[in-house]
Specification:
By secondary structure, the chain is mainly beta. The chain has a single domain, classed as Streptococcus thermophilus LMG 18311 protein like (3-Layer(aba) Sandwich). Helix content is 9%, strand content 22%. The chain is built from 1 helix and 4 strands; from the N terminus they run E-E-E-H-E. It has a 4-stranded antiparallel sheet with strand order 1-2-3-4, covered by helices on one side. The chain starts with 25 loop residues before the first strand and ends in a 13-residue tail after the last strand.
Length: 120
């Protein structure tokens, strides 16, 4: 995971989700490409706790983020050549804490398989 240099100016530096420049976690309020602010939580991997994933959650106050907004956030928090994913887990593992929130995930210990280009 990489943070685009512009991201630091939108980092929350006070409050419940405060963090400091360069931290690999934190909250950000980022002006989105479609006119809404995007609330972003960056959760770092924690291999000692069994969390071998990079994770970014994205929400707005009015609706779920759209494809253009998720691509915008992907470009700010991940390298252009990294594959990341949104997951639809089994219903038994479904969690919905915020109704307008989507997530980007990247496992650290596995390669995300991709379909053949001519199948897309």
């Amino acid at each position: 995971m990489k943070l685009h240099p512009d991201v630091e100016r939108w980092r929350w530096r006070t409050g419940n989700y405060a963090s400091s420049t360069g931290d690999d976690f934190g909250a950000f309020r980022i002006p989105g490409p479609c006119g809404l602010d995007l609330n972003v939580l960056l959760g770092p991997p924690d291999p000692e706790a069994g969390i071998d994933w990079e994770h970014v959650s994205v929400s707005t106050l009015k609706r779920c983020p759209n494809w253009q907004e998720m691509c915008f956030i992907k470009d700010l928090f991940f390298d252009p050549e990294e594959t990341v994913m949104q997951l639809h887990p089994p219903k038994s593992r479904y969690v919905n804490i915020h109704p307008n929130c989507l997530h980007l995930w990247r496992p650290l210990k596995a390669e995300i398989p991709l379909p053949p280009l001519d199948a897309v």
